[in-house]
Amino acid sequence: MYIMEKKVEQNGNHFLSIGNGSAKSKENEARASMTKSTSGLSNLKQKETIVTISGGDKGCYFSRVQVGVFVFALLLTLSAVIVLVVCFSDSNRHFHRLNPTVENVCKCADSQVSYVTHPENTVALHTALAVRSTSEPFTISDQPEIGIRLPGDVIPVHYDIDLDVSIDNENYTGSVKILTNCLKDTSLLILHVKPYILNVNEAEVYIYPLKKGDTNNTNNKSFIPVTRQFMDFDKEIHAIELKEPMMKGIQYIIYIKDFQGFLFADLKGMYMSSYKNKNGDTRNLIASQLQSTDARKVFPCFDEPDMKATFSVSITHSSEYTALCNMPVESEKCFDDCSRTRVQFQTTPLMSTYLLAFVVSDFDYSETILENNYTLRIWSQPDLINQTYYALDFATKTYAYFTDYFQMPDVVPKADHVAVPDFSGGAMENWGLVIYRETALLYDPEVSSSSNKYMVTLIIAHEIAHTWFGNMVTMKWWDDLWLNEGFASTLMYFAMDNAYPEWNVLDIVVAEDMFPVMVKDALETSHPVSPNINHPDEIAESFDQISYNKGMALLRMLETFLGKDGFRKGLQSYVMKYKFDNAEMSELWETFTEATNSSLKICEIMDTWTRQMGYPVINIKADGDYYILEQTRFLINAQKDKQDIEDSDYGYKWYVPFTYMMEDDVTLRLHWLKMGPGKIKKTSGGWILGNVNYGGFYRVNYELEMWQRLAKQLYKNHTVISPPNRAGLIGDAFNLARASMLDYGLALNLTTYLRNEENYVPWKAFLDCFEFIRGMLSKESAYVALEKYIGELVAPVFAKIGTDDHGTLPEMYLRRLLLKTGCDTGVKAAVQYAKDQFRAWMINGTRLPTDFSQVIYAVGVREGSVDEWDYVWIKSQETNSPSEREMLLEALAHTQKPWLLWRYANWIFDVNKIKMQDVRLVMSYFSNTPLGRMIALHFLMTRWDDLNEKFGDDTFIIREMIGEVTAYVNTEFVLNQLEHLFTEKPPKGAKKGADSAIALIRANIGWMDKNYASIASWLDQHVESSF
Ligand SMILES: [Zn+2]
């Protein structure tokens, strides 16, 4: 999956990631609306779920029928809708809030307790059931023996899935036959089902033992009788207790004949989406997103990545649509006067459940047939089909590239890539049916910018890379998610570099991907790339920058010391060895060790990077003919005097492949620091530069005199040092200064050379580092001088490179960046250009240069009033280009009229104005200007209850909003307010986010005390005052 890290330009040390938003609030709405749509209480009778009431002296168990009666009673006093929402939300399990009333109803509790005996050899759930014979209340979830993992007694081999979907009624029915192997005797079968969202009819659950040679035994009557069935809300399991145990060594078919699912616009599982065609008609469609744990929302299954199986899927649907699944169509027939069609798809290879996908739509496609009849199609709304050609061309090259890289073709014989109007992440690599949000796949050269092209290219490459790394070979469990994502994120750059060498993507990566995650990983609130996962919610939480970007950076570092060939050889043999299987991190390192002929113990080296958080700073000190290298953990918040080394098994020491070069000998040299210090011989009296090309995930700190030499080199002739290293010197200096390890004056001295810098990467690094200082100083008197200084650096380079609309991607990136910075800091030529362009666009409809349109819209809105704002809003609603729409929506947050910002922020509660999938984007746009941030912070605090209620269960929205609006808060007053807010009303799904925001604000306050005066004084000396 690609979480689509949209870098908010100049947003410095934190950036937005559009993740797999698990809209749980939607799910709760879904539960409520589902009960409404299925004639209220009759639905309750289908399940005999045990609901626990805790807090009473005695256990008090209700069947759902009783709960229904209870709800019915409440209906008399409360409005039906409110009650149902409450009852079918997650919090329903905690009935104690309603206890006083419930106690009265609970006359029958004891008679509900049945005593069940169990063979010893079944899973721990029996302990849970046995507990019922005592008076202690319980739920399955209360039993620590049962984690979120399935017991593994029974594992799937093959699924036959039949789904009959009705787009008009927004629901479907289905059946599934799962051929399984029993590995251990058990009379308790546990499957994944998302309760309430997926309704299993218990009367239609059959377990058939297979005799040798049988393939399909579901027609005979010899199924094992079921004693009872249970659901668990938290762990999302459906437990089937059998009268006779399933026996080790025997195969069984689990036949769940009748389940019903509902299709909501919740972006999870199989879900509804829609678009308006050019006639203005709304067209509906079905799309899917099963990663990480929503296959269980679509059909009962063993929903764990290492329970791989083959899948035969059929979809029955209205004939006006086309159905797509992972595999090509095997057969198709229509019935009911051909108004309905049943499509049977070919059987998939062995794969994980999270990679299944379904699309039912009226989309069109563009197509190319590659060698071996591999069919590649790019699908979109029919009106957008001409925006699919770029993707088709690049995807064709990318399949060829990876086929060659891995020396192995894709196993699935086709790849459909589909752009759907509503998608929560960036894209998802479902095998053979990759699904994207529209901006991640569609590219319109007429309106899309270079950065749109870059993102589309990157995401396509990322998803295709997963075919080999993720789909063929899969991690065993989600704690190794970073393996999938880190590798896809590394390999995507290889494919891009191959297709567009002139982009220098491997340089861009340093400033855009590595530096931001290095800031995040330098906080004590970071986590190892390989975290422990104990709850389904933590799986979604682990899809963050650390998994993706640090994972990528570590693998890039691995490549620096293995060499390109060694890296490729290791990867090839790994995929070959574990094809159709699952592997753990250690098994990967083993194949790399073999690739080096065991000259390096890769596991030993890499464990220090993946199993502990953070990274080191290497301090270089001259000592006679040598340089002494020392490593310490780098922490931005240096207030804490002593580091807590106890909480890491490795004591925050690393195996560092330290690379370096010297002034008169620029040969790249490598020296290993083995969890301790090192020593290298001086070859010259000039400068030494560590971490060549910024290939390693560590910072370098020099002695004062050495920093000055390096600054002098930059000023004299910066091209001697590579662009990633120029960026790295700036990045390291400012971060070391932020951590009080270096004087800010020295870091600032490094930036004066930028008047001559014409490469995007150092500029990007500089502006990102400066964004923090700008944010912190935005309410201080030195802010004027700061903006003036930046303007003075930008102006000469802007004058030189201009606003030409043609050039390579890095050239266009730099022009856009400097135009934007020039406009922000009042460089006259830049502001005038943008204003003129905006006027021409608004009045004459003149088309804007695609790369600059975002800046131009923003300046137009900023300099304009309500007319300009409304005009841009209307345009955002009219455009059929998703990327154009995002630019316009972003520009709207640049207004300097508070009332317009307030109106805009409030619109996130109005789905007719701002789509659910865009809420995160829109809120992130507010952090682009000091005023926007101020309003957004105020908005967060004043509408906290509503935000928490509506978006609290989403994995990302609140977490990111907190991070963005609090990034530059640096006063005790606001800190106290936020602490109070988070304590009184904790954010539902973003506790970690709130904690880290508070920690960051404390650090900000400390930073201001320590550094404000010296920065103000440096600016005073270097910027001419207007007065
Ligand atoms: Zn991915």
Can you characterise this structure?
With 1027 residues, this protein is of the alpha+beta class. It contains 33 helices and 33 strands. The strands form ten sheets. Strands 5, 6, 8, 9, 12, 15, 17 and 18 form an eight-stranded mixed beta sheet that branches. The protein has a five-stranded mixed beta sheet with strand order 20-21-22-24-23. It has a four-stranded mixed beta sheet with strand order 31-28-27-33. Strand 3 and strand 4 form a beta hairpin. Zinc ion (ZN) binds next to helix 10 and helix 11.
Q: From the alpha-carbon coordinates, what is the Rg to the nearest angstrom?
A: 30 Å
| Estimated structural class | alpha+beta
Oligomer: single chain
Count of alpha/pi helices: 33
How far the N terminus sits from the C terminus, by CA atoms, comes to 54 Å
Indicate the low-confidence ranges by residue numbers: 5-144
Bound molecules: zinc ion
CA-based shape: globular
Overall pLDDT score: 84
What proportion of the residues form beta strands (DSSP E)? 15-25%
Report the strand count: 33
Helix content: 40-55%
Specify the biggest β-sheet: 8 strands, mixed
